[in-house]
Amino acid sequence: MTIVEEFNDYRAKMNGKILEENNTVLKRLFNLDTNAFAPGALDGKVKELIGLSSSMVLRCDDCIKYHLGKCHELGVTTQEVFEVFSIANLIGGTIVIPHLRRAVEFWEELNK
Q: Which Gene3D superfamilies does the record cross-reference, listed alphabetically (predicted)?
């Protein structure tokens, strides 16, 4: 099983368990997240690139993987992803570099 499959399977499994509990606040939070990334004044690709950059600066590997997956689905190129990586590292500083390494590994796996 690849790192992409492991991540997607685990995320789906745990999201299912969370939503099974039928907690109104958590369900609304998940819904808000879904709606925030829906196309609007900004298209979905731009929103995912913003999400990727923000996730890198916040150093959330799960979020980085999620947004990389969505970027891949939306046809984002490697050049575009690396421009986002460069901005995120500039804003976040060198502490983002370990997350950059894992992001590159995940992006390479998505592109196999």
A: AhpD-like
pLDDT digits (tens, 9 = 90+) for 79-109: 999 999 999 999 999 999 999 999 999 999 9
Q: Which tokens sit at 44? A: 């979905």
- Whole-angstrom Cα Rg for the chain: 15
Which CA distances in Å does 92 have to 33, 61, 82, 84, 87?
Answer: 23, 14, 15, 12, 8
* pLDDT band, residue 41 (cuts 50/70/90): very high
> Which two three-digit tokens encode residue 11?
């995320």
In whole angstroms, what separates CA 62 from the centre of its chain? 7
Domains and CATH numbers, the chain: 3-111 (1.20.1290.10)
Tokens 């060198």 belong to which residue? 94
